[in-house]
Amino acid sequence: MFLLHRRLPLLARTTFLCNSMEPALTTTAASSFGGSPRLAALAQQLRMYKPPPSSSFDDDAEEMQADQESAGKVVSQVGFQESMTPVPKDPERFRPKRAAVLICIFEGEEGDLRVILTKRSSRLSTHSGEVSLPGGKAEEDDKDDGMTATREAEEEIGLDPSLVDIVTSLEPFLSKHLLRVIPVIGILKDKKSFNPKPNPAEVEAVFDAPLEMFLKDENRRSEEREWMGEKYLIHYFDYRTGDKDYTIWGLTAGILIRAASVTYQRPPAFIEQCPKFKYPKMN
Predict the structure, then answer these.
(1) How far is CA 229 from CA 43, 67, 71, 106, in A?
(2) 239-245: Cβ within 8 A, 24+ apart
(3) 209-243 burial by CB neighbour count: b if 16+ within 10 A, else e?
């Protein structure tokens, strides 16, 4: 059974929970984040994060060629790191499209770290009505993944890219049909300056949730499924804000579990379990 439990990299002994910050950090750097020393320290911590490299493979791609449609149906539900997946990298056989999502973190009124989420429009042809992170496919003019994520966030929810300080990117995740999704972590410099303006063609609602929620076993449920003889878990997080109830699951939940693990520098209180991806030979 394949477990997604890994040792998180040490980040030069820096943690945003630490109160022993240098004076320069609490003044100059903090001024860039609405005067918050905590966000300034978090930005410093996350800039040191280096995602692990993607898996390496044998030269014989025929031995590893995937049934991409079958695999895609699984990964779109589970949400897992590409570095954990034996996807062949023969450029003539595997050309995944690239996309990026924005994990936009800010400090809530009670001092907790929160992340901006959206509920997709019920009129969309795919994943309609589901909770997701702002983002989408890369365009030729995008200079990097940060630009893709912030451009899409501006189009979807009216988030001005100048309000977001991109601090790091996580390892790629795989989505349906093996779309390569890059989670980009950004810190919202001034929450008061952000007035959500959801694009009705794409977004039904904009809300935020505590990031630490995705490390806790509270309000979480899971569903066991099987693929090619291997059992795996799909995680669901139930969240209520105001009079609205949301369920965060699948790829979005997987990305947020990883983002919370990196941010808080600890694993979740539950086991993440994905199937072993046994790619058959092509006939």
Answers:
(1) 42, 15, 13, 42
(2) 239/209, 239/213, 241/207, 241/208, 241/209, 244/205, 244/207
(3) bbbebbbeeeebebeeeebeebebbbbebebeeee
Q: What is the pTM of this model?
A: 0.78
What does the mean pLDDT of the chain come to? 78
The answer to whether the CB of 101 falls within 8 A of the CB of 133 is: yes
- The amino acid occupying position 227 is W
Reduced to 3 states (helix: H, G, I; strand: E, B; else coil), residue 84 is: helix
φ, ψ for residue 56, nearest 5 deg: -105, 155
**Using CA atoms, how far apart are residues 122 and 256, in angstroms rounded to an integer?**
23
Query: Which amino acid type is present at position 83?
Result: S
User: Distance between CA atoms of 130 and 127, rounded to whole angstroms?
Assistant: 6
Q: What is the pLDDT of residue 3?
A: 39
Residue 139 identity: E
pLDDT per residue over 203-220, tens digit each? Answer: 999 999 999 999 999 999
Instruction: Report in angstroms the alpha-carbon separations of 150 from 11, 166, 196.
Output: 25, 9, 14
SS3 content of the chain, % helix, strand, coil (to 5): 30, 30, 45
